[in-house]
Specification:
The longest helix is centred in the middle third of the chain and has 22 residues, at 59-80. The protein has helices spanning 23-34, 59-80, 102-106, 117-134, 164-176, and strands at residues 5-8, 11-14, 40-43, 91-95, 143-148, 186-188, 193-194. The strands form two sheets. Strands 3-4-5-6-7 form a five-stranded mixed β-sheet, with helices on one face. It has a two-stranded antiparallel sheet with strand order 1-2. The protein is 36% helix and 14% strand. A hairpin with a 2-residue loop joins strand 1 (5-8) and strand 2 (11-14). By secondary structure, it is an alpha/beta fold. Bound molecules: NADP nicotinamide-adenine-dinucleotide phosphate. Residues 17-19, 44-47, 68, 95, 97, 149, 151-152, 154-157, 160 line the site of NADP nicotinamide-adenine-dinucleotide phosphate.
Length: 196
């Protein structure tokens, strides 16, 4: 296992490809070495899909995005679980996308966008993971929240114009307010609730 802990300027972070088969071992070993209680887990790792038609959608793209968006979030949450504090409103926040909304897709809200199959399918699956974790007795006392961050400029979404710093401050505010935030709904960081 490679060295995963990096520390600088009072921060410690874990370098880990969460889609790797040994990601759980890397994460849980590093978190045990850090040995601090965790209040909030944000599962934000994401990747865009390419294929927007059935004929060019390949299983390897679908599996890669499933491994990252769904299994990756599971692996990180599972590794964090033994370290999560139970007395400071612990939360697991899964960064989803409005494109994962089945209700909005059924309304054809995104039809003109021609978005990737793999991205939409795996974000919908991440929403189901979030709801399933919310019913898990092992996670009692931990809020599990699905969040659409809004559109902001990033490697994944280069055409968007909003600065990522806007997203960062909205997310920080959401985390601060987590005690009052309702579970079992699909949040948008702009304050709206989205249909699942
Ligand atoms: N930007 C938007 O408008 C928008 C809209 C809706 C939802 N989202 C969601 O917001 C989240 C953040 O996306 P972003 O727009 O900020 O995209 P981004 O700039 O491409 O960032 C993606 C992040 O995921 C990390 N990542 C990717 N694969 C990973 C892996 N195998 N293991 C560990 N980390 C991995 C990347 O780490 P490295 O930097 O080390 O590669 C990077 O930090 C995603 O879940 C995305 O689906 C974004």
């Amino acid at each position: 296992m490679e060295e995963a802990l990096v520390g600088q300027d009072g921060l410690t972070w874990i370098e880990c490809d969460i889609a790797r088969d040994d990601a759980h071992l890397v994460m849980s070993t590093a978190l045990t070495r850090i040995g601090l209680p965790i209040d909030v887990v944000v599962n934000g790792a994401g990747m865009a899909g390419k294929a927007t038609h059935l004929s060019d959608t390949r299983s390897d793209e679908l599996l890669a995005l499933f491994k990252l968006h769904v299994i990756g979030a599971m692996v990180v949450s599972r590794a964090a679980l033994p370290h999560m504090s139970r007395d400071r409103t612990p939360a697991i926040i899964n960064i989803s996308s409005r494109l994962g909304s089945m209700a909005a897709t059924a309304r054809h809200d995104f039809k003109s966008l021609e978005m990737s199959y793999a991205y939409r399918i795996t974000k919908a699956a991440l929403n189901m993971l979030t709801l399933a974790m919310g019913e898990d007795s092992e996670l009692a006392g931990i809020k599990t929240l699905a969040v659409h961050p809004g559109e902001f400029a990033s490697r994944l979404a280069r055409r968007n114009s909003r600065a990522p710093s806007e997203f960062a401050s909205l997310l920080a505010d959401f985390i601060e307010r987590r005690e009052d935030v309702q579970a079992d709904v699909f949040h948008s960081l702009n304050g709206h609730v989205l249909a699942w």
